[in-house]
Write a structure and sequence with these properties.
Length: 312
């Protein structure tokens, strides 16, 4: 299997009080192969009203500087996480603001120490010493998922209802092999399935959430490239449907709509990112018979196979 892309990370904390610690953690994460996209460590050039300015900051307006930092964190998506350096258990005002944005954008976040000055609900499995977190990421090739104990499901559901958008649009692709591999007449062409931790180790099709202001076709091209390394030609729509109840997705209590298409690719060599554990090229009939599919993907594969059989 080809090596996966780097996991991204943003470091948060008081640069004024803990800048040496921030630089130390930046080095630790970077040496472990984690792409620290912010901050871009450089020397402190100014301090005003308790706000620190770094050499690479694009603006001397603290509001603009903070918004640019938040924009970087909000763009992490499912391929990255935030790490909060709070060695004494305290976040402070600006860092609390950054945590709120992480929660609103559904970004995974971790803390060095349990929170002492903040009423935010923090899922279990979110407090990690940096060395242990690095060790986990290197071993598993993804960051630790949240753990929600049975007695906290009500409070976790309430938090999700408060912060999640009303609807989430997701695109997916039945990726069909049109490489140099020869297929006999009426033989099913192989399609691509990926096994992913976000579906509990089950197989699914390649796809993901549509970003703000993004067109469906652009989102699908992006997701295919990010998750498989493939360039694809997008073809006809297969189906559009609401998520099945109880399908087990890792973000509960949101309304999701799936829009799935056929995509053709000219090669079979896959470069997985951190969202997937492994992949399979198989005919649709074998996929339905032999793979443990998450139920939403199963709908799409079934409809694709029925259409394929009618065409054949």
């Amino acid at each position: 299997m080809v090596l996966k892309e780097k996991i991204k990370c943003v470091l948060h904390g008081s640069f004024r009080r803990n800048f040496d610690l921030v630089k130390e953690m930046h080095t630790l994460f970077t040496n472990a192969g984690i792409d620290v996209v912010a901050p871009d460590i450089s020397k402190i050039v100014d301090e005003k009203d308790g706000f620190v300015y770094l050499q690479q900051d694009q603006s001397k307006d603290y509001r603009m500087t903070e918004l640019l930092y938040l924009k970087t964190a909000a763009e992490l998506g499912s391929g990255g996480f935030s790490y909060y350096l709070n060695p004494h258990g305290r976040l402070g005002t600006s860092t609390s603001y950054e945590l709120a944005v992480d929660q609103l954008t559904n970004t995974r976040y971790f803390f060095m120490m349990p929170l002492r000055d903040h009423p935010a609900y923090i899922p279990h499995n979110s407090i990690w010493k940096p060395e242990k977190l690095v060790e986990y990421v290197q071993q598993h090739h993804h960051y630790p998922p949240p753990i929600i104990p049975r007695n906290e499901k009500k409070i976790y559901r309430l938090m999700q209802e408060l912060i999640l958008p009303g609807s989430i649009i997701a695109v997916g692709a039945i990726i069909v092999d049109h490489s140099s591999k020869r297929y006999r007449s009426k033989q099913e062409r192989d399609i691509l399935l990926v096994k992913t931790h976000k579906w509990g180790g089950r197989y699914s099709i390649v796809g993901g959430k549509v970003q703000r202001k993004e067109r469906l076709a652009d989102a699908l091209h992006r997701e295919i490239k990010e998750e498989s390394g493939l360039d694809a030609n997008i073809h006809e729509s297969i189906c559009t449907f609401d998520e099945l109840r109880g399908s087990g997705y890792f973000i509960p209590d949101a309304h999701r709509v799936f829009a799935d298409n056929v995509a053709e690719v000219g090669r079979r060599r896959i470069i997985l990112n951190d969202e997937a554990e492994e992949y399979q090229w198989m005919p649709p009939s074998a996929v339905l018979r032999d793979l443990n599919l998450e139920p939403n993907a199963k709908i799409t594969v079934e409809q694709y196979r029925q259409r394929h059989m009618r065409v054949a």
